[in-house]
Amino acid sequence: DAARRQDMGVFIISPTDKGGHLHTPSQRLLELCAPLHPIVFNDLFCLQDSRVHTISVGAARPEDLELHLEALKLLPDAAALIAPVDQRLRQAADEALGRDWMATWSVGLPPWHATPGEINLPVLLWLYNLLEAWDLESYAKARYGLLGSGGHWFAGANADGFDGEVSAEELQIVLKDSPWRERIPDILRSLKDRLQGESQMRLSSV
Hints:
This protein is 50% helix and 3% strand. It has eleven helices and two strands. A two-stranded parallel ribbon has the order 1-2. α4 crosses α6.
């Protein structure tokens, strides 16, 4: 909206990668997005918004552009094509995680800089949602590894220090306003078990 007020377009960088590693989508995501490929759905989702003027796409070989070109051909019908896929994606999340969780998971979460160990709870629970709803494991693992080494672009820490330098009791003190304060520690443990690995670096930092 700020860009629109200045008569400026919005440029989204690498939505295929940053939007969920859509170049290597999970089988679950392929099924939910059908008959569209997840890349096509994502391109349409971005470009149907009149505020978005440009997206960047990476291509290792010419055929990598084919799905993006397909999306451009479908752009006039974007709204009708997006709606049923968007509904299925939301329904899958509700079924996997429960409507109550989806409606309130972010309520009462402290910011990373006010959390013991600088654990970024909003991002970690968002990754948990992506894992459980759409099986975005490779994306979640990469983003999890980026926490702690992404600088201000991806601030805060992952859950590796939980149950070590940060206790469940310390965490629950800052979760006093969350309706899920009893459940969140177990979620962090599951993320740590499932996603822990080598830290990641932003490409521009390499």
